[in-house]
């Protein structure tokens, strides 16, 4: 009882829900209907319909491309896991095909195996799928932030310097960012950019190539070079060391510029400045905690300004001047200075770096006939304060990251520096060129076809007098059918997608079905069919000559049966083609046979009844027949004529079979000599001999006839049986 009550409650709730939904539907329709009516002038306008169609097409294409990309990525992921098996299968197929189609027996099978291994191996298959993945992967996110390459002289402590920067540093990376990290390099992600540290010189070229592959359109936004102040001070008078460091930096910057194809801004950072006497004393007096302030000189000139070695002097002049102002400010504040001697001599000690740094930079930024010196954006200093690297945080936040899009290509490039993208661009350029050429050719062909089709179409209606299509020769009909065949000969234009699905053929087919077929072709066929019916009626009214030979009468009966059967088939075909038709099966064949029967002339070879306009026009056309099948040919009259003619032939056959040719034998063999004179005896004898031979031949022919047609024949092979088969092909009333 409780379950029944619960079911009733559920049923009642479901009913209430359905009623509520129906009420909501009615309310929505009531509110939306006025909006639909008010916007009817808009969405019923052909222009807005066309724009809406374009919008829907674009959305559909985007969805299709997205689905294709998902499918391609899934397929690549699947195949990459089984590339060894795929390579083995391809190699096996290649070996089988080569063994089957090799031209000479002396050809070594090892050569084929080596070539197969060269073209189809795991490495090449992986390269192919990597290229597909590379071309199908979006790389926009890689260009949103700035990428900088960190490099420097040996023992410049650049790894310690970059690791010490915590300002804006990200530790949580996205999955796609983790995939960028490569062996031999350190990748440091910040909120506004990325710094890539090359761990050693052995990996330098490979890392630069990898970065270029990741971002082919703008591999890097700049280069951060680090030089150790300790190295400069330890080699104060060693020009060889300075030259070596400068040349090493020059080679690296030249390699970067050559590989990336970009002129990159260079930011020079002097590390380990704590070795400079007074460095820690000065900055400890300035701040109790290690500072993230930016300490150095920024180049005020434009990035395209030619490099000048005087910039080093300008940098030290600016920095030393700022230090002296700070020294005066700190000393005037009255605060205690822990190591005042080192504090006051810091500017002098720092200036000792100018000479060695100038020599290094002079070699590093040297010009050549092959390249200009990279633009130097400034010189900065960093070092340890209280055991921690300082003076670097604001260098990235306030100098590096704000200076975006300063890198520019060495020359105006039309193709990507990445090999895969460049090959794809070459292929695209060739494809576009071929497409343009093909479009021009197809446009010319289509325009020529359109002009010829228009002339042929207009020529059909110059003279629509049906009498010229009703002539027995059929010249006008051949001309009309030939024009329709030419109209269907639309060129295949691969570069014009609109022609892939028929182009103008459907419109011509519809026009032919509405105009040409009812008023010209079917009317002409009806006229010719009536003429054939009239000829058949006249033939049936001809008198039968009962004295004629059996052969003559048999030929007349066979001919009449054949003509009547052909007419009946033609009439059936005409009624069927007049429509409506359920399908196109047999339409072309029926149209050809009907045309061939109705006209006396031979159908030209240029008329093709299988064209879409001829077949499709018949399918779409409809012709009203205002007569019954028996109206043109009187079936009773035809049947009576057949009966009479058949009766006469049957009588002749009976007489021939039952009455042997004995009269000729009697006349030839039983001539009376008493009625002849003796002088004529010899001629009578010769004449009788010829008559006897002739009579014997006639009799033997009769015997063969009896044997063939009556004694050794079957009901189906006898003369009567053959006539019966012909009569069975007729449509009896």
From TrEMBL:
Keywords: Membrane, Transmembrane, Transmembrane helix. Residues 199-384 form the Type VI secretion system component TssM1 N-terminal domain. Pfam families: IcmF-related_N (PF14331). It comes from Candidatus Endobugula sertula. Signal peptide: none annotated. The chain crosses the membrane at residues 47-68. This is Type VI secretion system component TssM1 N-terminal domain-containing protein. The keyword Transmembrane helix applies. InterPro entries: T6SS_TssM-like (IPR053156), TssM1_N (IPR025743).
